[in-house]
Amino acid sequence: MKFKSVIESLATITDLKRVSSAYVIDYRNLQNEEVKNALLKTAPQYYYNENVEKALNSLLLSSNRDERILAPIIIKNLLLHTDDFKSTQKELSDSVIEYEQNTINKSNDFFDNHKAGKQSSFEFFKFVLEAAWEKDGSISVDEKNLLNKIRIKLNITDDERNVLEASIGKFPSLGNNLHTRETIDIVKRKLQSSGLLFCIRDENKINYDVIPEEIASTLKSYFNIEMKHHGFMELLDSKHFRNKAYLKNILDKSGLNINNNLRLDDLKELCLTHINPSILLGGYSSRDGFDTATLSKWCSELHLQTSGQKSELIARVIDFYDNLRKDINLLEDNRIIYFEYFEDLASRNLDQLRSQNIIVKDLECEKYFERATDYIFEELLVQKPLALKGTEHPDGMLSYQEKIIMWDNKSKETEVNLADHIKQFDRYIKNSEKKVPIFLVIGPSFTENSINVAMQYMLENDTIISLVSANELKELAINWNKKYTKGADPFPLGYFKQPGRFNKNLVNI
Predict the structure, then answer these.
(1) Are 411 and 464 contained in the same domain?
(2) Do 183 and 64 touch, CB atoms closer than 8 A?
(3) Do 89 and 211 share a domain, yes or no?
(4) Where on the tree of life does the source sit, at the highest rank (predicted)?
(5) Does residue 331 carry a pLDDT above 70?
(6) Nearest-angstrom CA–CA distance, 406 and 388
(7) Angle between the N-to-C axes of helices 264-274 and 244-253, in degrees from 0 to 180, rounded to the nearest 10
(8) What's the whole-model pTM score?
(9) By the 8 A CB rule, do 375 and 339 touch?
(10) What is the chain's Cα-based Rg?
């Protein structure tokens, strides 16, 4: 939306006066229409490059760490990648929390799964971060500036920096605690009073956070964003990027030391996070990238003008993909059917499972029991499981503050006897890089002695082992999800802090 259209759609007089405080003189004494007229007259000041950059820097270098963390997430990571640079206020706050949680999740297996060949740089920068935090338990503005210079020198992205800070328990705040919606709203209001973010209301009385096009243009330039994230993904999915050698050549020239055995999807992922579209298309020199004939043909396929220099053709392709609308495809989750037969999978009711065509081989029973449990945590309890690494690991893990919750599925025709498995679980817990306060054992039912073993283990190791029956977990997930509304807080994992047998009646639903 253009600046003029945004001003005409501002939600309330409070929103009008908040954004006018950036450049409108004597705004407090003006009425509704007078404020709008004043905003339109001072419009150029809002999207004047130096003013935009000054307002942004005041937040990025703010002494308030919440502002330093949240402002770039809201602007750079989210709104600049949305259609029309706008989002409903609720969805934007939800997306901020989702970004923070995903960053914490990535931190749990970042060093093992990263493919960019920057291991030594990550380890060094993590050491520098730890040293900076050690001084007085916080990061000053000057320290942030210095850290940023080191980050750039090491070719570490902002997102990677956030993940590294999360790995030491400092992102998004101390103890990996997520920002509350109240704090997010406070920073949004600060962005409004800085003239960077506006709140509008549509004909259905729905409020949106929006960045006017003129301001977004400067912000994209500041953050070196050439294309929205979903557009870049569409670009990489085109037929022109099916050649691993081409992508690897571009990545090698960028300075990344990548493995020769990476899959095509891995190379695309690295391009998405480390290479600008203009470099991907045109390379680092006139001899790099696609030639003019290929680019011209590509433009023809997109029904764009085909004449012009190489740089002009590249600009047209970038503009086309940058302006693609985001298309959300909802794919059917085949884990749903396994969830329906959760208790049968737990108790290995093989005859029933075969008669319903759920399994063909006996071995599938365990696998589908695990997948159904994944579904429960990810979709019903809204707690995304972490990626698992290596071969010696439990069936699932969840982020819990700066710690990890583990779970293991036991599909058995008889009661699960914890004593038979405690050594296995102890290895998982002791080998974890992060503290494991809770270990869930999910099975059909449990022996009486299992409760004693769980209690004894807690006394000796300070880890709670909670024994959860498949029936209890399924019922809990269904009942909790019925009352869950999209964007609300996920299921509080602290409810699993129950040594011995889990009691679903202690969960406040």
Answers:
(1) yes
(2) no
(3) yes
(4) Bacteria
(5) no
(6) 11
(7) 40
(8) 0.71
(9) yes
(10) 26
